[in-house]
Amino acid sequence: ITVPIAAEIPAECFIYHESLDAAATLNLLINEPLSSMPKTQILEIDAGIFGHRPYLYQEKLYITDQQVAGVLKGIVVPFETSMLACLHDSAGYSETFRNMAASFADKLVLHGTTPESWAHEEVLLWKLRDMQIGFTINRSAPDDEGDIKSTVETALMIPRSSSEAITHDEYNITYEQPDGVLINGRYAEAENGAINVNISLDRTAQGSYQVEGVFQGKEISAPLQATSRVVGPYYQYQEMIRAANPASGQPHALTLDAYVPSANPLQTISMDMNPTGAHIGGLPEYELLFAGLKASGVVDDRGQKSMTVKMGSLELKLSRAYINSQP
Length: 327
Known about the structure:
This protein has helices at residues 22-31, 94-107, 233-244, and strands spanning 2-3, 11-16, 39-50, 53-63, 69-78, 83-89, 120-128, 131-142, 148-159, 165-176, 182-191, 194-203, 209-215, 218-223, 254-258, 269-280, 283-290, 293-300, 303-311, 314-325.
């Protein structure tokens, strides 16, 4: 679809009728047409929300062989079973371009699809230094049998140099019992568009779990090592709020066993959440320890409000941009 946006060169938008890795797709849409350019430079990476839908944006300067400069802008907006992507090959009009994409996403009606009615939906944005570099979408709802279905989708675009970004995409779908016990899960992760985690976790008739799939190029088929009961993401979310106890101002420590295949595909990890005693904006601050990482964050009566994760020399900040949660 060609869309004029007050520039000589119109924007082009595409609808993909399938779920795609948002960060890898945007990187490909930007890099492929610029692959023959002698020089490129990332001008901006950004993430945000249009209403309740997250978007990922990149803007790149390029120099042609004839020493002519240009700017290519791209944006992707994921839906549950599809994706909107738009490109604009023109300097300027950045705000106009985003507004056009926002309007398109708001009015888009996908025939033949029935959006799920989520009881819990939230969008969290990731920030590196002064750049919003990606998003995480958490969704949960009871299924027809009363179990809880949850999905987690993450897309990150991290600058590696002035001209190159690395991408991380993740999509998980899990089912848990009403008491939080994990039933099964499907976990997929990709780095720069290449799948490095594709794992299925299923509970056996004996109550243990079996792991099947591929982890970093190696086939896996083995029982899961778990020290206690394994809980799902929606239970973790509820327990985090109960532990923070923001209404009383008296938080307490929390330890949960969770399955995070990128940390260890064959063993659960312990997630420890301890109040620091400090308060930020009237809310208790927590220190979180999981998979060798240390983070600090703030929880309110709707869940994780913000978090800072230290990964070596990198410091990533997570903040809630949207939430809609029903009892």
